[in-house]
Design brief:
Length: 194
């Protein structure tokens, strides 16, 4: 199984990074082929909304990391996205990436009804925020991240098999044993060993 992990946190040793590293190690131990990319390090120009890609299936902008990441998404069997909550939503860098690759995630028929391009693939969403539990969920903080990613991944055909929503990272910044256990548990949902 080929797994692509996208880390949308700019902090190399932050909460998301630690959770994703645990998931990466566990997935490799179970025999998966894992690629990890840090969204903050990518060079991606913003979408110009010309809509040309919807009919041509290509982006008019000069090639940058958007096309490279789309190729990795196309090639993977499962996608793991780690995104800290910024303003109740995903970081702008991650949104910029997904805005650039709509044409490779979903098509549209003549009535503009979405046609998913990644049916049969699995996805895991990992999020964190400083708002403490349960308000990270009740006040739509990490829940806002999950909602935003479900919108993108859902229309693209991915089946979201697990989510992790870690709240209270300001008050409890350390990576705890309970975090590690949650990360190990979600990898099982990918059913790497069949
Ligand atoms: C620009 C910015 C906006 C943020 N917005 C929110 C927010 O809306 N709600 C929240 O609970 N935490 C917010 N945070 C805090 C982060 O979500 C939190 O520190 C998170 O755990 C960071 O993850 P990391 O350590 O993996 O980078 C924000 C942080 C930044 C830098």
């Amino acid at each position: 199984m080929k797994i692509l992990i996208l880390n949308a946190s700019p902090r190399p040793n932050g909460n998301i990074a630690q959770m994703l590293e645990t998931i990466r190690t566990e997935a490799i131990n179970q025999g998966a082929n894992v690629t990890m990319e840090r969204v903050q390090q990518l060079s991606i120009r913003p979408c110009m909304a010309c809509m040309k890609c919807r009919s041509t299936g290509n982006c008019v902008l000069p090639e940058d990391d958007a096309q490279r990441i789309l190729a990795l998404i196309t090639d993977c069997d499962a996608l793991v996205i780690g995104a800290p909550c910024y303003w109740g939503n995903i970081p702008g860098t991650l949104k910029t990436l997904f805005d650039r690759i709509v044409y490779g995630m979903m098509g549209e028929n003549s009535l503009a009804i979405p046609q998913a391009m990644h049916k049969g693939k699995k996805a895991i969403i990992v999020s964190s925020c400083s708002t403490i539990w349960p308000f990270n969920i009740l006040a739509n903080q990490t829940r806002g991240v999950v909602r935003a990613l479900k919108e993108i991944l859902g229309w693209s055909g991915f089946k979201i098999v697990a989510t992790i929503q870690k709240g209270g990272t300001l008050r409890y910044p350390e990576f705890r044993e309970s975090d590690r256990k949650k990360c190990i548990k979600v990898v099982k949902k990918l059913k790497i060993r069949k």
